[in-house]
Design a protein that fits this description.
The protein is of the alpha/beta class. Helices cover 25% and strands 28% of the residues. The chain has a 6-stranded antiparallel beta barrel. Strands 3-2-1-4-7 form a 5-stranded parallel beta sheet, sandwiched between helices. A 4-stranded mixed beta sheet has the order 9-8-11-10, with no helix packed on it. Helix 1 packs across helix 7.
């Protein structure tokens, strides 16, 4: 099988490519140049797509003895991931850029080009398992990335390979060292790859400027302060609210709702964050087939947390997810991923983008 290995310059994608070679596939490595300023170097575990990363990927390909190319996807990445990220925050939503990168870049733009060039599959270093077209959680729960892959269609999964999902991360590093890959001890990337400083608020402020609005107590309607823009907040946020006096009952305040048109950010106690129903748009089903009726499942609303037993059902073009126990910090723009609640509980059924919730105070 002809395999295109997406090599980020990290240890996971290098070992994934190595395993594809060892399995007997005809492998070609490709590094995606996504950054608009590739001259910037990484700072430890922050940032990506730098010249350093491209060099690390090339050296790994040389060790493996496979052809290697660098493809410039910076324009597509800027439009489909970065610009969309900024637009979502400006609209009061909380996006997951890693999820959108998988959806729009690695398994859309990259996969489409790979198939057009005669490749059979794209191989990545994601921590997930793919068995006979069924997407499952990785063996290593702390590294599991099935949530950010839950947006993939059945057709995309049919042309995907995730060779490292059956192995814990420490063993992947040990294998890299055994194979002579210099990235064996390279730090993992954290935070948002296109914000190497880690300052998301500053990144957004630079692009959106000041959009003054009010911080309002959700219960009393009292104006508690001013802010520079709704893009500085997300539902469930506690720190950095800019409220300088405690609530009357002494309890901490959280962001409950964001209203981008009026610029109002409503805050209040944690119990008002409880969500028991989620409405999702643009549902995707990993099997390629939508269910005929209600589906018992486990819903997950964040990459490594936010799980609850649930019942999901299509309502026209939308997905309604009724939670058996409330979740907090559920925000429009996030994804809700659905897992089969069997003995393993690790099979991905599908996902949808959260449009609204039934939180007592909600901007949905």
């Amino acid at each position: 099988m002809r395999v295109l290995a997406a090599m980020s310059g990290g240890v996971d994608s290098a070992v994934a490519a190595a395993r594809a070679v060892a399995a007997g596939h005809d492998v070609t490595g490709v590094h995606l140049a996504l950054a608009e300023t590739p001259d910037a170097l990484r700072s430890g575990s922050r940032g990506c797509c730098s010249k350093e990363d491209a060099g690390d990927a090339r050296r790994a390909a040389d060790v493996l003895g496979i052809p290697f190319y660098v493809w410039d996807f910076a324009g597509r990445f800027a439009e489909d991931v970065v610009d969309q990220f900024v637009e979502d925050y400006a609209a009061g939503r909380t996006p997951n850029p890693c999820l959108r990168c998988n959806e729009k870049i690695k398994f859309s733009a990259l996969l489409d080009k790979a198939l057009a060039l005669g490749f059979d599959a794209v191989c990545t270093g994601h921590y997930a398992r793919l068995e006979h077209g069924v997407l499952r959680r990785a063996v290593d729960p702390e590294k599991d990335q099935s949530y950010v892959l839950s947006v993939l269609t059945a057709e995309q999964l049919a042309h995907a390979m995730f060779p490292v999902g059956d192995t814990p991360k420490p063993a992947i590093r040990a294998e890299a060292a055994q194979r002579g890959l210099s990235v064996a001890s390279k730090p993992d990337s954290h935070d948002i790859c296109f914000i190497p400083t880690g300052d998301t608020a500053g990144f957004l402020a630079e692009r959106l400027g000041e959009r003054p609005g009010q911080l309002v107590d959700a219960a009393s309607g009292e104006v508690l302060g001013e802010h520079a823009g709704v893009h500085g907040f997300t539902v469930g946020q506690r720190k950095g609210l800019g409220v300088h006096r405690p609530a009357p009952d002494g309890r901490p305040r959280y962001v409950l709702a964001i209203e981008p048109v009026s610029g109002t950010v409503r805050v209040g106690p944690a119990d008002l964050l409880d969500v028991r129903e989620i409405v999702g748009e643009r549902p995707v089903w990993a099997s390629g087939r939508a269910p005929d009726g209600p589906v018992e499942c486990v819903a997950q609303v964040r990459a490594h947390s936010g799980l609850a037993d649930a019942v999901a059902q299509l309502d026209g073009d939308e997905l309604r997810v009724s939670l058996r126990a409330p979740l907090r910090g559920v925000a429009p723009g996030q994804a809700v991923a659905l897992y089969r609640p069997d003995d393993s509980g690790d099979i991905v059924l599908g996902s949808a983008t959260i449009r609204a919730t039934d939180a007592p105070v909600s901007s949905g």
